[in-house]
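Anyone else keep sequences and structure tokens together like this?

Example one:
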Amino acid sequence: MKHRWLPAIVDSFEYETNGKRIGTLTLFGWMDEKIHHDFLDQAKMIIVGAAGEYNLHSWWQEHYQKPVRPVDVTGISHPPPGCEPLRFRLHITKLLVGFSLGRTVSVRANNWPNVKLHPEEPVIGMED
């Protein structure tokens, strides 16, 4: 999971007057608990995000990644099916096309490995 990043769903956006936005993400809930805790511990300052698809593949994540700064983490009592009971609010300064409401994105802690995926893993074109 550290190499392929953690999938999340974009729940909402709050728009600020300076053109920046705060995005709210919910992590999918099937990750290993050790990875989950490591992500929470390491992702205090910077999280890196990349646009993804519904099949959890990313669009060439080592090139289409953007750093985002966490605002806060809140617990939710009734998470969506298959999701963690945690919500992340993140400052997003450069919005990628795939970072839109209801879409799947991939996130990692800044100190996690940034490896190039095998050629068959990322989404390359619309036919994928």
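And example two:
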Amino acid sequence: MKSYIVTTYGNPEEVVHLQEVDQPKPEGKQVLVKVKAAPVNDYDWSASSGLPKSYRLLFGWSKPRKRFQRLGMEVAGIVEETGPEVTQFKVGDAVYGDTSDHEFGSFSEYMCVNEKALHIKPERMSFVDAVAIPHAAMLAYEALIDLGKLGKGQQVLINGAGGGMGTFGLQIAKTYDAEVTGVDGAHKFDMMRDHGFDHLIDYQQEDFTQNGKQYDLILDAKTNRSPGAYLKSLKPKGKYISVGGKSGKLLQLAFFGGVIKLFTGKLFKVLALEPNKYLDKMNEMYEAGAIKPVIDGPHSFDKVPYLIKYFGDGLHKGKIVITMEEDIL
């Protein structure tokens, strides 16, 4: 079968290669999935580029370790074969999920993964929409609802708002009648306006921590400042939730968050994602029309190296989705 492999760090267009590899055989609780669609995530950029360099402590310092040489961490497809201990699925089931707790490798024709990483795809949900939901929507929901305790009518700012997590965050916040400000590059503003952001900030022109405005809740995918820089952007008892950013700044948040809460009453947290935790809730919201993935694409399978670079350059609008077949819906 064909699978994208990376064995050295560099420009993804140069180091990510399509190779012929043996088709895996499911064992134990594994299922073999015929891949229909897969999205690009931070993992794919970092595991192929080696950036930021601090991530190499996990992926491998000089080159990716074997486990991280296969790219793709979400999948939507059809169960082709089941291991002898599988109880949740049968051959022919349409499934999807965030597989990162168990396996990588969805940029392949087939993927073997533990059944715990998958859910049944709702019949009325396309493969493209399904694969866009698990990681990005979980980040947004767990941050806003679990940690942020979002309340009705609150003022919310999302930094990194024009990608998958940010566009889901907007839609989830709107179910609470929130007033939502999005921070991103101006090239995404038309899309962001169309999808309902109330206010937009071009991060290249304005620093939201310096403009004097305050929010009940800040959801940040780009954490690149010390905790003190965000304090004045939060209302009394406001909450700052990070879902990603520079490792040094994330460590500061984790270390000083309790002290900041003690002295200011403002909450600072780094989200520890629980993959697929609220997929059933996302299915309900999708069926009710409350959420709809914003898709960049779908793109063809041969564009994977380019699309990883495109993601790293921050050019994408919504969630980048790749399909194995041109007519996939």
